[in-house]
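Chapter review: from sequence to fold.
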Amino acid sequence: MKTRHIVPAGAFCLLLAGLMPQSMAENNWPQWRGVNRDGHSSDIGLLDKWPENGPEKIWMFENAGKGYSGPAIVDGKFFTMGTRENRTIMLCLDANTGEEQWAKEIGDVLGNAWGDGPRGTPAVDSDNVYTLTGEGNLLCVAAVDGSILWETKTSELGGKTPNWGYSESVLIDGQKLLFTPGGEKGTVAALDKSTGEVIWQSKQIEDKAHYSSIVAAQINGAKQFVQRTEKSIFGLNPDDGALLWKTDFPGRTAVIPTPIVIGNRVYVTAGYGSGCKTIEIQPDNTVKELYSNREMKNHHGGVVRIGGQVFGYSDGIGWLCQNLSDGSEVWSERKALGKGAITYADGKLICLDEGKGHVVMLAASTDGYRELSRFTLHPQSEIRASRGKIWTHPVIVNGKLYLRDQDLIYCYDIK
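The token string follows.
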């Protein structure tokens, strides 16, 4: 008589999940620029070439309203911000079908000549969603239905709304919510994510808020938070917000791209002619500048690091591959594609032309600009401000490419 081994259904499902290729397993994009805030998708097995008219459009949602907020995508739910009836809303869609799950009013609408509405990307943590509106309303809502669990305003923390509105995407780290109200009470604040109560503010630095988003890092074996303002780059002690190190940066007008931390080195870039800078943090927290130049002058489309190179759009130069070790140009291309945003997945760069809506797949290569495919977003928004462009960054998760042009959210199949 043969012995039958019965595997419980739950264990069998876990076994199957362990055997699945990564491209088939469920991935998440829980915050701005993905899991590690680096613009990298963990998807593999994606198309190496798109059909002539572009990849299949799975769905398009047409009622997101105004704004540039990007998506946080977790467990098949797509969270972003927009506007309806002159109110800012948090919006939840089914990430696979585009069907609206719920919409919740969360504050006033930021008015701006370059486009009204929210700028930042929500952060999803367990059963809650956290976000900062362009007007400076900071909230925690329930992921299941958008009900508001707590809220506060940046003005209560000494903050003043920047010229183009609060654009930072909040960071959840353990029990803390980190963001940058700016001002004399302390540039950066850590709040209890469960209650919204202030844990600390970084009183040793009082720079006003700009538009970059804070990152968590391990530098010389020590946990810290790295942020930048118009004129400063700095690291903070996660326990009490004490200033660990600080260095100057020649920012102008608006400093936007997220810092990149590699070991004990920090790379930053900004537009308006500011350029880029790489520093090295010594074990005693002294700062050594490795280089500062104007090769990469990235405005707000972001840059991604792949190995020893940084890729992105540099004002006046075009799409650029930069050597991270010394800041030199590896290659550049100015004519093939206009200025825009970038993300990385499966050995490829996905670049979005902010002016014309061209979506281009490039080889993530040091051998030069190698275009693999392209298509153009269609239709495009009719409510975009005359000064506004397609500024929401591309997101790739679970074999899908998500793009946004104001009220229009697009989902394409690229697996």
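Two observations follow directly from the output. Residues 9 and 15 are 10 Å apart (CA to CA). The chain has one helix and 33 strands.
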